[in-house]
Write a structure and sequence with these properties.
169 residues; mainly beta; six-stranded mixed beta sheet; 12% helix; 43% strand; globular
């Protein structure tokens, strides 16, 4: 049976995500880290880790965003996806997440906290079904959606991808 994006959105009970695509939290650690034991960028306690299912339809993008914590993306099904990451040094990295290592695809990609990142499904007629794990656990106050003008001012050499992965302000 051929399964499309709509099938997975319904079967996994996914909801819209602010960065684009669909998600549902699937895991929350039972324990928390006290705020005083975390770096200063975190305000208050955090779960040890959280995880979500994430589906990105081929006609959408995961807009540039950053988290205060590290995030691991895991590939499950559908088309391969290209992650664009602007690292701490201002270098643009491109990683392919998918099931074909002979074509440079990996099942997991780790993104360090503080880096800007977004994604595009390689086959616009398909989708990418993924998992994302964040540690310490995700909180919306640790999430920042990229502003096109600010990103263009900081990284003018990446205009072509910033314009694809942001919204006109």
């Amino acid at each position: 049976m051929s399964r499309d994006a709509v099938y997975w959105i319904e079967a996994l009970q996914l909801s819209r995500h602010p960065e684009g695509g669909y998600f549902r939290r699937t895991y929350e650690a039972r324990e928390r880290i006290a705020g005083e034991h975390l770096p200063e960028r975190f305000r208050g306690p955090r779960l040890f880790a959280t995880a979500i299912h994430y589906l990105l339809p081929g006609h959408e993008v995961s807009r540039f965003h950053r988290l205060k914590a590290d995030e691991i993306w895991h590939f499950y099904a559908g088309s391969a996806l290209t992650l664009y990451v602007i690292d701490d040094s201002g270098t643009l990295l491109r990683w392919r997440l998918g099931a074909d290592p002979e074509h440079g695809e990996r099942f997991q990609i780790s993104i360090l906290g503080g880096c800007w990142f977004g994604a595009i499904v390689d086959d616009p007629a398909s989708y990418s079904l993924l998992g994302c794990t964040v540690a310490p656990g995700f909180e919306y106050e640790d999430f920042e959606l990229g502003d096109r003008e600010s990103l263009l001012a900081a990284y003018p050499e990446y205009r072509w991808i910033i314009e694809k992965l942001t919204v006109q302000g």
